Amino acid sequence: MKEYVQIAKVCMLAGKIMLQSGAETYRVEDTMNRIAIAYGLNNVQSYATPTGINFSTDIAADTHFIRISNRSNDLHKIAEVNSVSRKVTAGELALNEALDMLNEIDHAKLTFPGWMQIIAAAFVSGSFAIMFGGTWPDFIPAFVAGGLGFAGMLGFERLVAIRFMAEFFGSVMIGVLAFVFISNGFGNALDRIIIGAVMPLVPGLHITNAVRDLMAGHLVAGVSKGVEATLTAFAIGAGVAVIFAFV
Amino acid sequence: MMMIITQLITSFIASAGFGVLFNAPRQALVQCGLVGMSGWILYYELVLLGMDVVPATIFGAMLVAVLSQICAKVFKKPIIIFNISGIIPLVPGGIAYDAMRHFVENDYYTAVQLSAKVMLLAGGIAIGLMFSEVMNQVIKKFPARG
């Protein structure tokens, strides 16, 4: 009996880390089931949504529940949990070893440092300005606006816990910067600069995940992620739109 | 030719940069960039040759999906790492922005048209991504008999 609880703990911890890192719901459930089967449970039931996981070791057994409150994008953690689950299914890891490893992953800080993310965002913005038909004079303005906009979003996110507001302020900053650049004679096309600079904020991960979940039959998760993506897109659009109200 | 080289370089930087933003494992960043670059350049060439953007996006997404599938198998990492950063260049951010702009300028007629296009493109990406998944499952179900 004690062992069931332990297996449930391992499965739910794996599921929790993956959901918080932005994995698709069907992948979360799949991983949890694989781990449970590898430890000898044959009739597990797992049900994950973007905001919580239900898990029971048998259809009539107690159901365990865990709440997911904050989600981010962290592909590295998904890969780490995936490799743990591979080892478990291969029978290489004992129960408490797996639990220790997952705990370690859960507390680890694997993200790139903030300044590196900002530089990456700046390069992404500059490149997209060129890819969407801009010319080289647009590169620098998009580079600066994208980097500062992303930095602004990170900063606002620390101040206010509502992500949509942070995205809104980030894109307002981008709009203002792009406008300032253009009116001072840097860059040719306002549109291209803004599109490029806004790209790091675009919810690409959520859109793709939402569609994948919908197609895999996870209707609740797919729809709710789709709504999250739409809201984000709306926040970005509204932020940029503020500028056009004054131009 | 110069244009193509520019597009290759910028799309590589963009996809790899998104790998950093999504915190992909450091060893996978180059692969992310290459996957994104191939998808984008296929899309770009098809559009240059006069194809409509929606089918071009579908083909680009298919290529991204197939390459990510291969990378996932070879490097033993979940496929999501490769296809997320690879698909980013194809996301219709520019048109979505245009649509939003026309909404704000009270030009609803153009705005709705552009929004419909965005929906079609997002659907195209989804179809392209699912295609490789389907192929993968079909291949698994029918093993080569010899």
User: How many individual helices of chain B?
Assistant: 6
The pair of chains with the biggest contact is: A-B, 51 and 44 residues
Calculate the terminal CA-CA distance of chain B, rounded to whole Å: 46 Å
Placed side by side, the strands forming the largest sheet of chain A appear as 1-2-3
Q: Tell me the overall shape of chain B.
A: globular
Helices, strands, pairings?
The complex is a heterodimer of chains A (247) and B (146).
Chain A: H1 2-20, H2 25-38, E1 45-49, E2 52-56, E3 63-67, H3 75-89, H4 95-107, H5 114-131, H6 139-159, H7 163-183, H8 190-198, H9 204-215, H10 219-246
Antiparallel strand pairs in A: 1-2, 2-3
Helix pairs in contact in A: 1-2, 1-4, 2-3, 3-4, 5-6, 5-8, 6-7, 6-8, 7-8, 7-10, 9-10
Chain B: H1 2-21, H2 29-48, H3 53-75, H4 80-87, H5 93-104, H6 108-141
Helix pairs in contact in B: 1-2, 1-4, 2-3, 2-4, 3-4, 3-6, 5-6
How would you characterize this protein structure?
The complex is a heterodimer of chains A (247) and B (146). Chain A is mostly helical and 247 residues long. Chain A has 2 domains: 2-107, no CATH class; 114-246, no CATH class. Helices cover 69% and strands 6% of the residues of chain A. Chain A has 10 helices and 3 strands. Chain A has helices spanning 2-20, 25-38, 75-89, 95-107, 114-131, 139-159, 163-183, 190-198, 204-215, 219-246; strands at 45-49, 52-56, 63-67. A 3-stranded antiparallel β-sheet of chain A has the order 1-2-3, with helices on one face. Chain A is elongated. Chain B is globular. The longest helix of chain B has 34 residues, at 108-141. The N and C termini of chain B lie far apart (46 Å). In chain B, helix 1 packs across helix 2 and helix 2 crosses helix 4 (80-87). Chain B has helices at residues 2-21, 29-48, 53-75, 80-87, 93-104, 108-141. In chain B, 80% of the residues lie in helices and 0% in strands. Chain B is an all-alpha fold. Classes of the chains: A mainly alpha (247), B mainly alpha (146). Chains A and B meet through helix 3, helix 5, helix 8, helix 9 and helix 10 of A and helix 1, helix 4, helix 5 and helix 6 of B.
